[in-house]
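Consider the following input, taken from an annotated entry for Peptide ABC transporter substrate-binding protein (Planobispora rosea).
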Amino acid sequence: MTRPRLAALTAVLAGTCTLAACSAAPDDGDPAAGRAFAPAVTTSVPAPTKNVEAVTWNLATGEPATLDPAMAGVESISTVVANMCEGLFTLGPDYRLQPALATGFAHPDPLTYVISLREGVTFWDGRPVTAEDVVYSVRRILDPKLGSSWIGWAVNLEGVEATGGNEITVKLKKPDVMIPNFFAMPAFYVVQKDFAEAAGRDFGTARGGVMCTGPYRYGSWTQGQDITLTRNDAWWNTEVKPRIKDLRFTFVADPSAQTAALASGDVDGQFIVPRAAHKQLAAKGNMLFGTSLSPTFLAVLNPDGALSDPATRQALRALIDYKGIIGSVYQGTAQPLRALVPPAAWGYGKEVFQAEYDKLPEPVQDLEKAKTLVGRSAKAKEKIVLAYTTASEEETRIATAIADAATQVGMDIELKPLTGEQFGAIFAAPQARAGLDLFLVTGYLDFPEPLSYYQFFTSSSFYNFPGYKNKDYDTAVFTAMVTEDPTARAREVAKAQALMAEDLVNIPIATQYVNVYYGPELTGLVPRQSYLITPWATALGGK
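Applying the prediction step yields:
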């Protein structure tokens, strides 16, 4: 994951109110105006009891570029593909692995995973799924010419082979405890080999279509208008009965138009609902929130200059108005963070993580402390260029607020606005990071394994942009990656977490809630971040 400021933080964003107070402003014309909107985390909803002929669902981020599951690393693609294509495993409500196209796996030694494939599974066209299809699908991801972001899982891969009619074996070059998580990710989504090869470059397009095994099959794609999926009544998973027959996706990207369509009922539901519409929609239907695996944080890009002094980084942490950001920018739909990885991503060793998390500094604004730190450091007074993406209104507001607070304490932050494309280039091209000191980014973990984020800051990682070097940090992360005992692994990860918090190679700000809205006649869907990789539409139905 450039706004020069002259006013104090307490006069930013709305011009006449503090960050904390802005969230309390009344909504003129809203029938719910004057009543407090207090978002709560939803962990369960009533199960559906009725079938529904058709549901229209909007993709908040617009029309997908493809429906190729290999590219399911973008929200607009993933939200659709998750209902069509399946991996060898899936994630349950607790984010734990559950069998899908595989029934289980053996782990006879640290370098070997032997996966047993489910018998009797067919593609939408009725042809059986074979071990050859599975191996083809995995190897297809590994072709750099395809350009799939999921290729990164295989950094320790030796090879994948069909070792039986209903068995594949994954061999590693060195142990990696994160590997089983990827069995439920698009890295292991299965497509039909013959169909994909025949389609060639058209695979995943409106013209070429896709061929998978999931609960909804590809129907049609009218570009610029909609995508339609139809229930796969021959789905292997007889324990789950999808209630919706036809699932239609629209591509309205304008927040005001999204709100109008949802409020009128022209669109039945949407993930990533505009924050300005939360209160209005909560009075009309199901406006629900869930904890996420997503952190928003400041990340160091340039370890030299102002940020070379720990006092500068400490001052940055102290000047952030965490309470105001949660209350105004996120309107209560987020929680402040003490560490990079949010608590919802502790997939194991929770007691260990909680105890160590509680030892970390509480995220509170302390402008006097920041002023003192800046007063003692010449480096802290040097200019800092902070990049952020204009594609996010929330991050625009946060960056602006940080720059204003920096002015108050004697720091000089120059804001650098970037388009979505420019911002994305930061992650791929060193030249795109030239002249930038710091950037504001929101990311998310694909599964609840803190290592999947902390590994990015080891000295050898491609994503370690500032060149952070700490031998103890590297040792803790690399030890954790080969430690299968969950409690022992959590202790090593917690060591790395504490070192990162002390060195402040990044400054955590908040973890946002996942949100979803669907109309009052629907029920069953609990908001979880796993909607990007699980068939969420199978939970939805009529009351």
